[in-house]
Sequence to fold (428 residues):
Amino acid sequence: MPERKIKLTNGGKEVELSIAESTEGPAAVNISNLYKKRGYFSLDPGFVSTASCRSQITYIDGDLGLLRYRGYPIEQLAESGNHIETAYLLLNGELPTQNQLDTFAQEIRSETKIPSGSWELMQAFEKEAHPMAMLMAGLAHLASIYHSELDVFDEAYRQRMARRLIAQVPVLAALGYRYRTGQDPVDPDPELDFTSNFLHMMFGAEPDPLFSHATDILFLLHADHEQNASTSTVRLSGSSETSPVAAVAAGVATLWGPSHGGANEAVIQMLEEIHASDVSVEEYVEQTKNKESHTRLMGFGHRVYKNYDPRAKLIQKICYDLLEKHGEGNPNCPLLETAMALEQAALNDEYFVVRKLYPNVDFYSGIILRTMGIPLDMFTVIFAAARTSGWVAHWLEMMADKQFRIGRPRQLYTGHTQRDYVALDQRD
Ligand code: SDX
Fold:
């Protein structure tokens, strides 16, 4: 297909820009020469219309509510796959054979032995410290341990670090939990699969198979999501050729925010707040429409999805399955009912319909985590442990790109033009 171009004309001058073609989704106007050719920057706060890179990892269609990892629909992966297989797929681009899967799982298992000092580091924190802060510190400690090996242009180094991060972020998460709950650390059990081992390190016992399955699917569903804020942070941070461990620590910092990964924690706080108050679901929805209230319907809305987040549907089903078996006297059952009522109220409210605001991945996930006994402030840590596969997959893709270069956005300067210094005694 001949290369498509687009012409920009102003002031009698024109510039021709090429169109970068996609395999699915919007094509892109390649503006990398715009400044050189015409002296203009492009302006796109929040990157609503900006593709930061080419990627073959994850495809999202926000209007249709589609999510595919390397072309495979998330529904099929959740139905028939598991998290470790999905991590292999994200990193390598193809589903593994049995032998490849066994080898990969063993490589991950062999990296769960975390360097000494991590437990002592956790103990330096207040017991009430937020576990996302502890996770960031734990990663900074690992970055120091692995710094002598830093060689980001060596493929073997990159693959080894990708496996280390996938294996060791959950271990740091479990260490933080054990310390904060006044318990000794639990060593990884090489006989268990990835997510059962994680729950075992958290709770010190072999988990209920239903909990293992629910956690595995949650990890799978949270593994990657294109160029979201934390993944973009990992890419930009990694583009300076820094350690991938440091870049993932930056991703954790970004994911922590309530507009991003921190929303799962905020959803439960919202559901509990509604319960504790005598505010009806309808009244609460009204509040979230009022900008002055500075309250949003947490777990609703998405920059890309203008339809139901496919992950939310799958997570809602896990909620049902879990509460069907563990619902007796479970305080989360009324939370699920409230969540369902909120969803119905919002989906039938003009404000949400017009703005195409639907439940996102965070709306129901907290109910599952709570049912499994995972404390509220650990929710985003679980998200980070799952998203590490996506973060390292994007880091690997970026570092292998022949056109790799450091990311350095420009700006539209709107500050003062030049002015002269005023001596202190001359200022009024
Ligand atoms: C994740 O990017 C990813 O892929 C992220 C993620 C991933 O897997 O990595 O999917 C994970 O972060 C999911 C999102 C979790 N965050 C929340 O649930 C927090 C609540 N949602 C929002 O704050 C908001 O919807 C965002 C941050 C998710 C999206 O923000 P946008 O795209 O910048 O949308 P916006 O703020 O411009 O909102 C558009 C309009 C505004 O109203 P108007 O100015 O047009 O009148 O919709 C309103 C907003 O006020 N709006 C909401 C709302 N979300 C948007 N109003 C009430 N409740 C909400 N939740």
The pocket of s-citryldethia Coenzyme A is lined by residues 46, 225, 228, 259-261, 263, 288, 296-304, 355, 357, 360-362 (CB under 6 Å). The chain has a mean pLDDT of 95. The CA atoms of residues 48 and 303 lie 8 Å apart. The chain has 18 helices and six strands.
